[in-house]
Write a structure and sequence with these properties.
By secondary structure, the chain is α/β, with parallel strands linked by helices. About 35% of the residues lie in helices and about 30% in strands. Helix 4 runs antiparallel to helix 5. The relative contact order is 0.14.
């Protein structure tokens, strides 16, 4: 199993007439860990719900293909497809609160063709989730941990974590990241992580999709995206001269020194010019690029 591929064509979903997703076109390569990033209201959760067959598109379509599905199929109202897609949402919000944990595990086992009970047991022990306790009696952190267990142990060809781990403390989140990477290495599949914790998960991600107001801002391999940004620091006049014609995402000035964050590839002639002018060139982290890309209205598609 190497995961399902995702093909999204002109996807539009509206709430009360307002588009949550607006003509979205997107391809997710199978067998990779994809980061789905965006501010609140960007459409991340709506997209996750459509991928899992929880919601129908108003326009366009979503097609899942590969694995044991073979040909491309839409997830909505297709039980075979949805059994291969596992969506885990924040703090286990979809779990039946009146049922004990062990009953939820039994239900998952009956619905998930690739369910791994041994992995589930190991993770329950690691996260110290009591199996006899009712879900509604669990703390927020334990509900999140249970969601993580269900998502990983499902070994679904398309597994989506939609802010699942926000209720977990830092050590528990680190345990989740380690468990995800270890099991993904053993059993590759397509994983989508929708998150605000960009700096925490950036080391896990292979591809990044950034949404803003229901539209695609950019899709890129993580390393390529990091290479598209740079910070330039030095005398203000020299910085202004070097960045003329580049897409400037942010600027800061202190006395005669200026720092500019730019988007775009810095070729060798430009780097040589920067060095000769005594300017410092530094990398921009994925978190910082995300903040700038979703907060800079002047960055147009032609700049990306």
């Amino acid at each position: 199993m190497n995961g399902l591929g995702v093909r999204i064509e002109n996807l539009t979903v509206r709430f009360g007439g307002a588009p949550a997703l607006d003509g979205l076109d997107l391809l997710l390569t199978p067998g990779k860990i994809h980061g789905l990033l965006g501010r609140n209201g960007s459409g991340k959760s709506t997209l996750a719900a459509v991928l899992a067959g929880f919601r129908q598109a108003d326009e366009g379509r979503v097609l899942l293909e590969g694995g044991d599905l073979g040909e491309a199929r839409e997830p909505y109202e297709d039980a075979v497809v949805t059994s291969r897609v596992c969506l885990i949402r924040e703090s286990g919000g979809d779990l039946v609160g009146s049922e004990p944990v062990r009953n939820i595990l039994a239900l998952a086992s009956s619905l998930r063709p690739y369910w791994n009970a041994e992995l589930a047991g190991e993770l329950l022990d690691k996260f110290e989730v009591p199996v006899r306790k009712k879900v509604q009696k669990l703390s927020r952190g334990k509900k999140s941990a249970l969601g993580v267990v269900l998502g990983l142990a499902s070994r679904a060809p398309l597994t989506i974590f939609d802010e699942t781990y926000l209720g977990m403390d830092v050590p528990s989140r680190e345990l989740f990241y380690d468990a995800l990477l270890a099991d993904y290495t053993e059993v590759p599949r397509t994983i989508v992580m929708s998150t605000h914790l960009v700096s925490e998960v950036s080391a896990l991600l292979e591809e990044v999709v950034i949404l803003d107001n229901g539209k695609l801002i950019t899709q890129s391999p993580v390393d390529a995206l990091r290479g598209r940004g740079a910070s330039i620091v030095g005398p203000a006049a020299a910085v202004d001269e070097l960045t003329a014609g580049l897409t400037v995402l942010a600027e800061q000035r202190l006395g005669g020194t200026k720092s500019s964050t730019v988007l775009g590839d810095l070729d060798e002639p430009l780097l040589a010019k920067a060095r000769s002018a005594g300017l410092e060139i530094g990398p921009v982290g994925l978190q910082e690029l995300f903040v700038h890309l979703t907060g800079s209205a002047h960055v147009k598609e032609s700049d990306r």
